[in-house]
Amino acid sequence: MSSKFPPAVTAIDIPGIQKFKSGKVREVYDLGKQLFLVASDRISAFDCILPDGIPQKGTVLNQLSAWWFEQTGDIIRNHMISIDPKDWPAPLQAHKELLAGRSILAHKTEALTVECVVRGYLIGSGWKEYQRDGAVSGITLRPGYQMADRLDTPIFTPAHKAESGHDENISFEVVVERYGQAMAEKIRDTSLALYSFAAEYALTKGIIIADTKFEFGLLDGELMLIDEALTPDSSRFWPADTYTPGQSPFSFDKQYVRDYLETLDWDKTPPAPPLPDEVVAQTRAKYVQAYELLTGRTFA
């Protein structure tokens, strides 16, 4: 890997602080009424964590999420308390060299077991469902759409959050069964409002947000946006200037990694193969480019 990048941080342990949960990318620490989330540089594809990380990927994800949390605060409250080490408890400040930039101190909520997916374009599993059924997550769509077409109206297509493996698409009615009509409608309407705001803004920066997923939690009965928001890991970002309906667009996300892996004789089960330096560098560049275009900031 080029020496101009710091090494990828793929393993994170904070001495003296108990790890609450370890995900594909994030490590979560329970501080009582608060959580401390650390985004590693790990990258996964086809539900496998790859042996190589993408240098500073976790920092890009964390800082872009924090930026979106600030932009969308008028739509819904979020779990962010601070990404500034000076606001963290002293035991965490002692490790700020490792944690700064890639970590967020957050309110602890009761996380909902629903992935709140909003689709503005027809691609991926949504396109496959449409081809088979003429519908996505039980929502009937008009005939005549091409792959990657923009939908007439964005749609809310929730999924059940799986502890491992693929999430399972569910209907809105299942969300109603879990959380009641009023809360289900709030979850749906908030998801659509967040997507519409972000997609409209991103388009002014030359980025199409084809789809995205949100996670929500409850704090004292109040719905809050949690986890991450509108990053290349939770969304499909396409460059607007090369977008053409009918073909799979270039992406600002880990699609570059998936495309490389598809060229290999690999059965998509662990262990995953290593990534060449060029693929790592190109993937990092795509994450950074998305961050800089959206925020208008230079990634340091």
Based on the model shown, name its key terms.
300 residues; Phosphorylase Kinase, domain 1; D-amino Acid Aminotransferase, Chain A, domain 1; eight-stranded antiparallel beta sheet; 17 strands; 25% strand; globular
The secondary-structure class comes to alpha+beta
Number of helices: 8
- CATH top-level class of the largest domain: Alpha Beta
Rg, Cα atoms, Å: 19 Å
Largest sheet: 8 strands, antiparallel
The domain count comes to 2
CATH architecture label name of the largest domain = 2-Layer Sandwich
Number of strands: 17
Within CATH, the superfamily of the largest domain carries the name ATP-grasp fold, B domain
N-to-C span: 18 Å
In CATH terms, what is the fold-level topology of the largest domain?
D-amino Acid Aminotransferase, Chain A, domain 1
> Roughly what is the average pLDDT, rounded to an integer?
94
Order of helices and strands: EEEEEHEHHEEEHEEEEEHHEEEHH
**Approximately what portion of the residues adopt beta-strand conformation?**
25-35%
How much helical structure, as a percent, in the residues? 25-40%
Query: What low-confidence regions span 5 or more consecutive residues with pLDDT below 50?
Result: none
- Shape summary: globular
